[in-house]
Design a protein that fits this description.
The chain contains 21 helices and 13 strands. The protein is mainly α and 704 residues long. It is a multi-pass membrane protein.
């Protein structure tokens, strides 16, 4: 591209500008209106209770107010809970035209014993049949009714087995004792038709349930840890926020010293981590079970088990050593560039100091992103629960109406019952045959696409607002006298008034790429069981290419938004000018700008590492002064990881403002070098310190 020429009228962000990319703005408005319509339609047809609450075989909710089963919150199944056809479990015979399912009934508690209806009916034990009646449909009152008729009418299951409640459902209480699979205390059971079966036949149906059960137990323990440590987690996050704020404030006045202190502190923190890992590694030498490999141990839900292995601490030590060596080598080879980066950070500190509201602006972006996430999630749930209860004809004998859709309200007076006396109208599944139900997958796709588009638009709005505010600082010849009164609000108003279309254009491109990546991930998930190696290879290449493309588009968009904020041009022109400017200064981009990113990363690493180490010593009760204050935990890594992740997000929020400031000043700095030459007629807009340092480092190397 052609370098920018000197323009005596250019004084920073142009105020006399017009609307850009109007077509994209109109498309965004239309899409938002359509998104609202989709949400209203989904909220009208959807019912989230279908996700949360179980139903019986007739599709009626259990334990819901206004339903026949308001006081019976748990559905008891006559057999395994995965709706697998099972003879003798209240299910239809296998020759039924429609896939049959076990009888599913709402009950107040799960059964705790083996019992068949035939044995309960003929039992001489008082109350046994009355106990069994709790697992029949509520309408079943006639205890003297013939068992054959009861089972035929699906009023009671053919058998019940010991079960445990899980997610408001009853699952077989499967356990292993000395390697023998048992349900309750038995290894066999009566299937209700006089045959004995092995409990291993229930194992396949409940295998996934056991995984869910272990996950549920893990989730409950994690939840318990949160209930006793949430206030300490909040204190840790407050400490991270205060530390981040103090660090940013100190950067304002002591940028050079703080950067070098930060570098030294990161090296020391990593060094201490290496030392601690070595001490733990040496301490476990000779202890029983400490030499077991991670591969032999496998996955364990209690992560504390791994801390008793020498290999775990050896792996931690190697990772920290590699990080330490890489950081030290980068500091050695980039020591000269760090001086320029520090000057740029000092300039960014002055800009942030004059626009302190910029530190709070990420809260606005965060709030808007939360709205996008909430709307997307709620719409997705309502769309996924928009299906209606479908009832079909079930029968045990040959019938021409088998498998056809029916209505329970009118089924008893229809011709079906006359032609097929044993036919029943039972709940089959949730679905629908209307046009709305046929295009639900399209609406879900549109929901995902709009989420990406709006989320990227919100991020773009935050970036162009900060860029406009910081650009007004750089291009003020007399700082801060020539700055506008409210640079942040002025930049925000310009972005919404003139450049909504350009922001929509940039975020649309990024959203399309992200949706393609989601589709590729879905295809990869579906092809995991396939043996087509070429398809897997091609899919991996496409995933890699689109990942790289997304990173490049994000980089290009970020710099395009800076040019939009300064010049008010459309997205394509701004992207082209920004890319050309960066390519004309590729060495500075590759070294100087990335060095500042590296220094900010070290700052985030320092804050996260310090708070993380403090949380580790506190929750593991290694600080003697507060040893009795730390709460008892099932997994101490739960609050520690929460504090670490939260601290990173907080530090990233503060440093993202600095990052956008540095990128804006850097682009303006490159423009300044091309437009002006430092003479009296064409003076630089950069600060004297930056100008002085630039001349020192550029001596003999004008392009470096």
């Amino acid at each position: 591209g052609t370098p920018q020429k000197y323009d005596p009228t250019f004084k920073g962000p142009i105020y006399d500008r017009g609307c850009t990319d109007i077509i994209c703005c109109i498309l965004l408005v239309i899409a938002i209106v359509g998104y609202v319509v989709v949400g209203v339609v989904a909220w009208t047809h959807g019912d989230p209770r279908k996700v949360i609450y179980p139903t019986d075989s007739r599709g009626q909710f259990c334990g819901q107010q206004g339903t026949p089963y308001e006081y019976v919150p748990v559905p008891a199944l006559g057999t395994v809970p995965h709706r697998v056809p099972a003879e003798g479990a209240g299910a239809l015979t296998c020759d039924a035209p429609v896939s049959s399912s076990p009888l599913q009934i709402c009950v107040s508690k799960c059964p705790d014993r083996y019992l068949t209806y035939l044995s309960a009916y003929g039992s001489r034990t008082p109350g046994e049949l009355e106990y069994y009646r709790h697992f029949c449909v509520p309408e079943f009152k006639n205890l003297q009714k013939a068992p054959v008729e009861v089972l035929k009418d699906k009023e009671c299951p053919a058998m019940i087995i010991p079960s445990t409640p899980l997610a408001r459902r009853c699952f077989p209480a499967i356990r292993a004792k000395k390697g023998v699979i048992m349900v309750g205390n038995e290894t066999t059971y009566d299937d209700g038709h006089g045959r004995r079966r092995n409990v291993t036949e229930l194992l396949e149906g409940a295998k996934k349930a056991n995984v869910v059960l272990e996950t549920r137990q893990l989730a409950m323990k994690i939840f318990e840890d949160y209930t006793v440590s949430w206030y300490w987690i909040i204190i840790g996050l407050v400490i991270a926020m205060v530390a981040s704020f103090i660090f940013i404030v100190l950067l304002r006045f002591l940028a050079g010293i703080m950067v070098w202190v930060m570098i030294v502190m990161v090296i020391l923190v990593l060094g201490y981590g290496i030392f601690h890992c070595y001490m733990e590694y040496a301490k476990l030498k000779g202890e029983a079970g400490s030499d077991i490999s991670l591969k032999d141990l496998g996955f364990q839900t209690d992560l504390r088990v791994y801390l008793h292995l020498r290999q775990t601490w050896l792996a931690f030590m190697i990772i920290l050593c590699i990080m330490e060596v890489v950081i030290i080598l980068l500091l050695i080879f980039l020591r000269k560039r760090i001086l320029i980066a520090i000057a740029l950070i000092k300039e960014a500190s002055r800009a942030v100091g004059h626009i302190m509201m910029s530190l709070l602006f990420p809260l606005c972006t965060f709030f808007l992103l939360c709205l996008c996430i909430a709307y997307w999630a709620s719409t997705a749930v309502f769309l996924s629960t928009s299906n209606e209860a479908i009832y079909k004809v079930f029968n045990e004998s040959a019938c021409q109406f088998s498998g056809q859709t029916c209505k329970p309200e009118t089924f008893n007076v229809s011709n079906v019952t006359k032609l097929c006396p044993d036919a029943q109208c039972l709940f089959a599944f949730y679905g629908g045959e209307t046009a709305y139900h046929k295009y639900l997958i399209v609406l879900q796709f549109f929901n995902v696409f709009m989420f990406f588009w709006l989320a990227n638009f919100v991020i773009a709005l935050g970036q162009v607002t900060l860029a406009g505010a910081f650009a007004s600082y750089y291009w003020a010849f007399k700082k801060p006298d020539d700055m506008p009164a409210f640079p942040l609000f002025s930049a925000f108003g310009r972005a919404l008034r003139y450049h909504t279309g350009s922001l929509a254009f940039g975020s649309l491109i990024l959203a399309i790429i992200q949706v393609i990546r989601v589709i590729l991930e879905y295809l990869d998930h579906r092809l995991k069981a396939a043996d087509n190696k070429f398809a897997k290879f091609l899919l991996s290449c496409l995933k890699c290419c689109f990942w790289c493309l997304e990173k490049f588009i994000k980089f290009l968009n970020r710099n395009a938004y800076i040019m939009i904020a300064v010049y008010g041009t459309n997205f394509c022109t701004s992207a082209r000018n920004a890319f050309s400017l960066l390519m004309r200064n590729i060495i500075r981009v590759a070294v100087l700008d990335k060095v500042t990113d590296f220094l900010f990363f070290l700052g985030k690493l320092l804050i996260v590492g310090s708070v993380g180490i403090l949380a580790f010593f506190f929750f593991t009760q290694r600080i003697k002064l507060v040893q009795d204050t730390a709460p008892p935990l099932n997994y101490y890594w739960v609050p520690i990881l929460t504090v670490i992740v939260g601290s990173y997000l907080i530090a990233h929020g503060f440093f993202s403002v600095y990052g956008m400031c540095v990128d804006t000043l850097f682009l303006c700095f490159l423009e300044d070098l091309e437009r002006n030459d430092g003479s009296a007629e064409k003076p630089y807009f950069m600060s004297p310190n930056l100008k002085k340092l630039l001349k020192k480092t550029n001596k003999g190397q004008p392009d470096a």
